[in-house]
């Protein structure tokens, strides 16, 4: 969309972003429900970890299919299915009384979650002008954290009060019923805008759609931006932050959990700031990513090099800065939006979203394996974060130069390009990607 966003666009976004809030609430609900789940299903820590791995696995595996579905059937249908499956998963969890049933319920939640984010990004691309995309994407991310907050103390109170079955039944039913609001209120495109092209789904054509998105240098750059920026905050908040602070640093568990809230507030505040800035000045996108990665590398060096317990005065600002990785990763989606036609934005967004989750999985597994090998040496194990960061940064720089080369070519042909850039020393000899 090139004109102005209307009140209708904002209503549609609001109806859609509520689904993301619900998705993040359900995604993170095992943070407080984990202990009760262990009791209910009679399982230990390792089996409990399987819930998270399964949920993230389903989420990551579904990203590209989700993008294709969104481009094919439109975000309204996919988002309606998303909220329905999120609710269904929690209803199943409410009545599940065995470990396998609990796992199935969580996989259904992961499936609904996987359908959510890409649909909302596609709605934003259709209903808002390009310059507002980054801000709306960042606001969406920030609102997701409200769901994360709701899944802490409020959900804990509900589980301690009414208990497991009434709580999950209630949140599941409310969520599933919200599918009606999405189906009625959300529209795929503004009046007169292009509708998704439906018809028979031909696997060959779908494969071509994914291949074209992947071959587009801007998508690939977005993938590596997402890969490099969002995994470290994820690894800390989803898995290794509390063990690092408790076993590695000697802080009490309650202090460690409270410290991780810095990530929630950092992203909620930083997201709209980063989004607003890059919406006004798209040429700042890559310098911001570069600046974030540079400072993050220094922070990791300080955290891992500190002898003895790292003081709070260092941890709090360090975590506050690292929390900006989430908002910075949204730059990856802005690149997918700018460098793909609207008919392929869903697929390209799905491709980009795989980046951060692949990096999170690699890094979380590597930390676990290294902890086992070293007998719990957190500083050595967390070095793997720096290795993943270096790999992501290297690939990102490769695709940054290639994307710039393609832009210069397009400019020379007199085509409209998404950002104005000046040729620099490092652009000399940058190869054009084979497909362009
Ligand atoms: N980059 C995250 C979202 C985000 C925004 N601010 C902080 N994090 C992302 O890719 N999210 C995908 C999802 O499904 O949540």
Explain how this protein is built.
This protein has 436 residues and is mainly α. The protein folds into two domains: 1-188, Growth Hormone, Chain: A (Up-down Bundle); 210-420, Up-down Bundle (Growth Hormone, Chain: A), CATH 1.20.1250. 80% of the residues lie in helices and 0% in strands. The chain has helices at residues 7-28, 30-41, 45-61, 63-73, 75-95, 99-114, 116-127, 130-150, 153-160, 164-185, 203-215, 217-248, 253-280, 285-305, 312-322, 325-339, 342-374, 378-381, 383-412. α7 (116-127) runs antiparallel to α8 (130-150) and α12 packs antiparallel against α13. The longest helix has 33 residues, at 342-374. Bound molecules: the ligand N[C@@H](Cc1c[nH]cn1)C(=O)NCC(=O)O. Ligand LKAUPR5Q is lined by residues 117, 141, 144, 230, 267, 271, 326-327, 329-330, 353, 356.
């Amino acid at each position: 969309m090139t004109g102005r966003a209307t009140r209708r666009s904002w209503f549609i976004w609001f109806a859609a972003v509520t689904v993301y809030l619900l998705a993040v609430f359900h995604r993170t609900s095992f943070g407080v429900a984990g202990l009760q789940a262990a009791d209910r299903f009679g399982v230990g820590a390792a089996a409990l970890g399987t819930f998270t791995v399964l949920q993230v696995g389903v989420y990551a595996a579904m990203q590209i299919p989700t993008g294709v579905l969104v481009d094919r059937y439109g975000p309204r249908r996919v988002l309606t299915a998303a909220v329905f499956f999120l609710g269904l998963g929690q209803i199943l969890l409410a009545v599940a009384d065995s470990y396998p049933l609990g796992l199935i319920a969580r996989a259904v939640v992961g499936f609904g979650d996987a359908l959510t984010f890409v649909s909302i990004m596609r709605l934003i691309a259709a209903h808002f002008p390009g310059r507002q995309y980054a801000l709306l994407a960042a606001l969406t991310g920030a609102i997701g954290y409200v769901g994360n907050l709701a899944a802490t103390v409020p959900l804990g109170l509900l589980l301690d009060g009414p208990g497991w079955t009434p709580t999950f039944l209630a949140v599941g039913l409310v969520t599933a019923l919200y599918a009606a609001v999405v189906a009625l209120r959300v529209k795929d495109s503004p009046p007169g805008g292009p509708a998704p092209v439906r018809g028979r789904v031909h696997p060959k054509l779908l494969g071509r759609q994914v291949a074209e998105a992947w071959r587009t240098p801007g998508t690939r750059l977005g993938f590596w931006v997402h890969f490099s920026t969002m995994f470290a905050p994820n690894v800390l908040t989803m898995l290794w932050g509390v063990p690092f602070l408790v076993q590695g640093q000697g802080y009490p568990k309650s202090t460690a959990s409270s410290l991780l809230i810095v990530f929630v507030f950092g992203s909620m505040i930083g997201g709209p700031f980063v989004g607003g800035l890059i919406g006004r000045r798209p040429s700042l996108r890559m310098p911001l990513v570069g600046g974030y990665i540079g400072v993050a590398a220094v922070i990791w060096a300080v955290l891992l090099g500190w002898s003895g317990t790292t003081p709070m005065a260092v941890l709090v600002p360090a975590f506050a800065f690292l929390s900006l990785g989430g908002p910075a990763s949204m730059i990856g989606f802005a690149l997918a939006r700018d460098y793909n036609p609207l008919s392929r934005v869903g697929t390209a967004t799905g491709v980009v979203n795989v980046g951060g989750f692949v990096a999170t999985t690699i890094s979380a597994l590597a930390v676990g394996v290294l902890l086992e090998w070293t007998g719990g040496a957190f500083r050595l194990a967390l070095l793997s974060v720096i290795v993943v960061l270096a790999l992501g940064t290297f690939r990102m720089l490769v695709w940054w130069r290639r994307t710039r080369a393609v832009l210069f070519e397009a400019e020379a042909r007199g085509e409209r390009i998404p950002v104005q850039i000046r040729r620099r020393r490092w652009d000399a000899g940058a190869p054009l990607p084979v497909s362009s």
